[in-house]
Amino acid sequence: VTRLPLQTVRPFLFRDVVLEDELSNSASNPLDIAKQAELTCTRLVEQCLADVTQTKRSSPNLAQCGASPPRKRVKSSTSTGVNTSEDNDTSEPSRWELPAEPLVRLRVDLSGGYESFSALRFGQRFIGRVANPKDLVMFNHNRERLAAAQTRRALHSGLSQIPVDFDGEVDRKKVGLDVVEVEKLVRQYLSNLDNSGKRAGSGNPCTDEIDRLDVFTANELGGSLRQFVDKDARDAIQSVVESILTETVHHLRARQCPEAHIVPNIISFCHSRVMSSIDSETEQVNKISEVSDLTKLQG
């Protein structure tokens, strides 16, 4: 085995970025925030590459480093018992070039409700310019963890006597919503109906007629939304809509109601599905509580 001495080291640059500080004065549009976050990371990577280039130019000795020539294998002659060595090679010292692509790592702090972007897609922009395009960005929530740890220590030591609404503090800083929050928002909007089918607190008959939810229930639309987002079921919403419309048509045909009573029957059928959903959820909760009580008794 021929051993080669290590004469150069690949540059390794770390940069820390806190999006809460960098994008504090940015717009609250989630799409704009995500785009600005990627632009900020791109700018930092470009700065790292520029620093490496400047270092090479200012230190020409780093570009090429003299090294002793590698030792060659020693050939032995079994017939004469004399070792023939090629160590006395008087050729010029070899030149070793500095690795062209540096190692760059961005540690991005997402504290404050910021969402991560695709690190693989981001790294593809710098293929051939950095040595680690696949793990160029590393996301963390260090600031939130530090604040939570400090709060827990303060509460345990009795230094903090004022209750703090941590959820409210985080919500005020958030620039995007996750899947659970979107579903909760949709359910809250769709469920904000009074018993007559009009939006509570509206008072405008025109908007009340537009905002009526007569055919579908909030749980049905919310469930289809979760299927669409979580399982990437692109036909989930359409399938639920077609299924509910088919059930409603069968219900009206079975009732053989006249045209004047179609709308009241549709509203009544929708209300009955809401009540049955509530009953089924109550039964499920009761079963879970019974199983939990039984487990505690057996334990």
TrEMBL record:
<feature type="compositionally biased region" description="Polar residues">
    <location>
        <begin position="76"/>
        <end position="85"/>
    </location>
</feature>
<dbReference type="GO" id="GO:0035861">
    <property type="term" value="C:site of double-strand break"/>
</dbReference>
<dbReference type="GO" id="GO:0030870">
    <property type="term" value="C:Mre11 complex"/>
</dbReference>
<dbReference type="InterPro" id="IPR038487">
    <property type="entry name" value="Mre11_capping_dom"/>
</dbReference>
<dbReference type="GO" id="GO:0042138">
    <property type="term" value="P:meiotic DNA double-strand break formation"/>
</dbReference>
<feature type="region of interest" description="Disordered">
    <location>
        <begin position="59"/>
        <end position="96"/>
    </location>
</feature>
<dbReference type="Pfam" id="PF04152">
    <property type="entry name" value="Mre11_DNA_bind"/>
</dbReference>
<dbReference type="InterPro" id="IPR007281">
    <property type="entry name" value="Mre11_DNA-bd"/>
</dbReference>
<feature type="domain" description="Mre11 DNA-binding">
    <location>
        <begin position="1"/>
        <end position="228"/>
    </location>
</feature>
<dbReference type="GO" id="GO:0097552">
    <property type="term" value="P:mitochondrial double-strand break repair via homologous recombination"/>
</dbReference>
<dbReference type="GO" id="GO:0000724">
    <property type="term" value="P:double-strand break repair via homologous recombination"/>
</dbReference>
<dbReference type="GO" id="GO:0031573">
    <property type="term" value="P:mitotic intra-S DNA damage checkpoint signaling"/>
</dbReference>
<dbReference type="GO" id="GO:0006303">
    <property type="term" value="P:double-strand break repair via nonhomologous end joining"/>
</dbReference>
<protein>
    <submittedName>
        <fullName>Double-strand break repair protein MRE11</fullName>
    </submittedName>
</protein>
<dbReference type="GO" id="GO:0030145">
    <property type="term" value="F:manganese ion binding"/>
</dbReference>
<dbReference type="GO" id="GO:0000723">
    <property type="term" value="P:telomere maintenance"/>
</dbReference>
<dbReference type="GO" id="GO:0007095">
    <property type="term" value="P:mitotic G2 DNA damage checkpoint signaling"/>
</dbReference>
<dbReference type="GO" id="GO:0000014">
    <property type="term" value="F:single-stranded DNA endodeoxyribonuclease activity"/>
</dbReference>
